Amino acid sequence: MLSLIKLPRVFTINQVPKVFHEDCIISGYRYPHSSATDCVLSLFQLTNETLNIWTHFLPTWYFLWKLVTVVVMQMAWQDSFTWPLLVYLLSCCIYPLASSCAHTFSTMSARARHICFFFDYGALSFYSLGSAVTYSAYIFPDQWVNSVFHRFYIHIAVINTVICTGLACYSRLGLPFLQYNHHTIKRFPECQSPKFSKVVRVVAFAYPYLYDSIPLFYRVFLCVGDGCTDNDTNTLHYNHIALAFFTGFLFATHLPERLAPGSFDYIGHSHQLFHVCGILGTHFQMKAIEQDMLTRRPWLLKNSVAITFSNSVGAALLCLVLNLMIIFVYSLPLLSSSASRDKKTQ
Ligand SMILES: [Zn+2]
Fold first, then answer.
1. What CATH number matches the domain at 42-344, 1.25.40, 1.20.1070, 1.10.3470, 1.20.1090?
2. Matching Pfam families, A to Z (predicted)?
3. 99 has a pLDDT exceeding 70
4. Could you give the CA distance from residue 198 to residue 188 in angstroms, rounded to a whole number?
5. Which of 128, 301, 330, 341 has the fewest CB atoms within 10 Å distance of its CB?
6. DSSP helix/strand/coil, 233
């Protein structure tokens, strides 16, 4: 049956423009001007992107199921204590969905590729805010609850998402209109300074993660004495932290394909492992958050900062609007380009 469908051919690294190149991946590239249909068909064909797509597309449905369960079973809208969890679960659905769409449609053109990944970065940034909102509500150690840091923690997290998305988008082409427009790219396109791009992008995502984790790291690694919230959930937090660091390590090092370029083009390259570890990390983070939420609820309701619309759903909406604005500004010079101009951005 499958043989009746003509699948598009795949290419080697020398047959596609530089903007599509991936470090140490030699073969399995899709046609750089694929149609949307060919992009969707490529889900069922082994290319170097296939597992990147599936490793985020399937978890999207698992996280969506979790979100629907909480909304339906726990009547979440009537209980403001659950709102941060809803924001977090929504962010957990959006980031793998945006990523799988970005990996699916990134070979439509060079400009589509950039715009796709701008959305991917925005979604990851939103996930960092989702984490911050739940950490503020359920994770903060007893000692730090109601502190000045706790009161401004979400405000700073919103600002961080702006910095994170801005920096991550900047890492691709530089500043919109100043360093690239629809005719030219004046400074460092990603393919000319890949190391600089990579460092900027790693910093862009490591920084909000580390900021969000300050109360958690204090609680599980540094805190001594009373008020440390040393409970059973800490084991789940350790699992999540270990996976998060391994995820960052894979992203930064490009292992294992760096050791044997061409050997992991289709299965087992670092980006696939990065996706899988990221999802497993999110799974443990979710379990930890739910457990802390359940076991600490009476104490938190009595002693912690009240959960309001503005420090949960409102912060998420603000973050969404700000991030979409940033993505729009970075995409504008590319959107105004024609197909012929697009070739110049390669
Ligand atoms: Zn990815």
1. 1.20.1070
2. HlyIII
3. yes
4. 12
5. 301
6. coil
The rounded Å distance from CA 49 to ligand 1 centre is 9
CA of 122 from ligand 1 middle (Å) equals 13
Q: Which residues pair with 98 in a beta bridge?
A: none
Residues 269 and 25 sit within 8 Å (Cβ to Cβ): yes
Q: Which residues surround ligand 1, an ion (CB under 5 A)?
A: 99
Q: How far is the CA of 238 from the centre of ligand 1 (A)?
A: 24
For the stretch 134-162, pLDDT in tens is 999 999 999 999 999 999 999 999 999 99
Q: What is the pTM of this model?
A: 0.91
Q: How far apart are CA 182 and CA 165, in angstroms?
A: 21
Provide the 10 A C-beta neighbour count for residue 310. 11
Q: Give yes or no for residue 213 having a pLDDT over 90.
A: yes
Residue 334 has pLDDT above 50, yes or no: yes
Residue 103 Cα to ligand 1 midpoint, Å, equals 7
Do the annotations mark residue 21 as ligand-binding?
A: no
Q: How far apart are the CA of 99 and the centre of ligand 1, in A?
A: 6
